[in-house]
Here is the input.
Amino acid sequence: MVTNTTNELSADQLRRRSDPTSIPYDTTDDVPDPTGVVGQPRAVAALEFGVGVQQTGYNIYALGPSGTGKHSIVTRYLEQAARDRPTPPDLCYVHNFVDPSSPRLLSLPAGIGMDLRKAMEKFVDEVRSALVDAFESEEYHERRSAISEVFKEMSAKAIAAVEKQASEQQLGLIKTPLGVTFVPVRQSKPLSDEEIAALPEGEQEHIRSTLEHFGTEMQRVLRQASRWNRERRNKEREMERDFTRLAVQELLDDLTKTFADHESVVAFLKHVREDVIEHAREIADLDDGESKAIAALLQHERTEAPVRRYRVNVLVDQSASTGAPVVYEDNPTYDNLIGRIEHFSQFGTLGTDYSHIKSGALHRAHGGFLVVDAIRLLRSPYAWEGLKRALQAGRLRIEAFGQALGLISTESLAPEPLPLDVRVVILGPPHLYYILCAVDPDFPELFRIAADFDDQIDGDDDGLAGYLELVAMLVRHDQLRAFDRTALARLVEHSRRIAGDRLKLTARMNTITDVLREAHYWAGTHESATVTAEHVQEAIDAREYRADRQRQRSLEHIRRGTLKIATEGAEIGRVNAMTVVLWGEYAFGQPAQITARVRLGSGTVVDIEREVALGGPIHSKGVLILQGFLAEQFAAHYPLSLSASLVFEQTYGGVEGDSASAAELCALLSAIGRVPLSQAFAVTGSVNQHGEVQAVGRVNEKIEGFFDICHERGLDGQQGVIVPHANVEHLMLRADVIEAVRNGQFHVFAVEHINDMLARLTGRDAGTRDDGGDYPSGSVNAAIETRLRHFAERRRAFENPGEEESGNGSGA
Here is the structure.
């Protein structure tokens, strides 16, 4: 006799309905916006703490499945927190007049950086004109000429004095391409070499000594003239400095007054004043001596180079900002995070200066928050190491990627580093967070806060109210048609279905947003002013249709007999297991046959999937648990003497998970006891060593997968599924399945123990041991135990041939 050890579920137990009358709004137009973050209290608490704590190292890793709104929630929360924070300073680089290879960093109040840049641009435009006007003035030329005349007169007098003395000694001064020289003169005419040779020896000696004396004297005068010439140039240079000071005094004094409250700017302007005075002729383009061709080629570079260093490179402009910045870097490469130094071409060579320093995301986020994606960050070469180094040092140093790696040693700029003040938030999946914790010792020190985003929201009254507010906000954000209460009720049901739990709602709002948009579209095709439940269902069905090609192909293979799945009759050692196939983000149920074979052996259960490396570790664990159950349940007093094999028939890929372990145990027990199992049922559930059937995932898709096969072949009222009782609260089945159950054409049973599952599959009582430790005659367990005892006796007979075999079990 079959005992009622299973609980058949009614149609009302297969889905939690959402009554439209329970929705307190007529349409989403009546639903207020959420006042806070919906359904993520733990993550919000972590964000609040991470934003509020001031110590270093409290950066945040926001972990959670994709589609849970991590990015939007984090950004929205940070923007709200940033409003109450002070606006960070402008960041500017200027020329370092002491060490040009190390540009100076100016940190100025918001807006001052651009003011300084514009002021210096104006100064650059005006300084050359001011200098040209000064150097072309009549006063300048008069003073320059006066200085020149003084020194010319001094030189002329000194040379004239020597020339007069030489004339008294009958020597004349002549000029040659090599300089000046003295020659003997008679009657106002220079003597030739022949005439000198014809003179008496004494007179020749006098001429030679006189020439030597006045040559030496002239050299002395010329050296004195050279010193006077240098003095002349110094006086002219000093005069130029005086004119330059007067020319730029008003310009620089105005600048100094404008930025008097900023010491770093005043110091910079002081260096600018000194540099302009030093390079005034270059700036005014007064150098002479170049050929016209070269002058034309170098004209721009010659006049631009000196004043280029007076410009201001505004790295970060906060003039339009209010509060702290929130920067999301969607391409977190090393250069995009740290900044870079660009180069320019100059006469065939590459050059650079402070004006070619470009900001990185960390510069723009200084004083605020930086948000990056974990996977993109780790995929970018050296970006993770560069970010860690900046956070650890508390200083942001810009250097070329190759220099940071020590791969190149060419001379480059070394800009003054920025004392970094930033809170970094990394968005990523949970598994990556745990990997980084395990393999990178720096990670836990730098990212002490884990903001854990849940993929489910509690479906209680508060959670549902917040959920409706979130849906209404999304509808308004995308400017969709209003959703009426029937549509909202259907969305709530669909959300529970995605969550796989009657008591939860999915937090994967990207999927819900897609349904909202598509329902809006279908409402438009029907010219409906509002979106109703029918339009939501149409969107859900359309999404299913677009994604279910593989499911339909699988059904076709079963319908044509390519994949063998029985839905009637009874077989020994054969059971229908319910599995699920993941195809991208789409999941569908697909039944599979599990078969078992047993024979005399040494107590091993061979998992064929594992032997051929198609079984995953969790599946292999489930099979090993079966061995433990058999030994405890049936072989406590004698050795387990069978050899069994289990296999998923017609599977050509990997098998993972333990949700088929209950089905495998049923097939194994059926093969041992030679008890047929009904093929009209499919089963799912994991099992422990005590025989308790445990919950599994994706139970809705699994049930619907077997239902679709039975429906195609024709529902006869005998077919059904057996699921773990713990999965009852996860059931959110399709309407057609529920209707078939309501009409008695299909059945859903919930069980708690493997004996309950066996009883339903075999149509016989599984049996429990009596006070004497025996199973009832005719029960499934009695048949199993009898066969196992027989195996044990046969094994003992083989191992001890002299002993007489005993027992009443049937042969193998």
Observations:
- Residues 1-5, 288-303, 805-812 have pLDDT under 50 and may be disordered.
- Residues 796 and 802 are 10 Å apart (CA to CA).
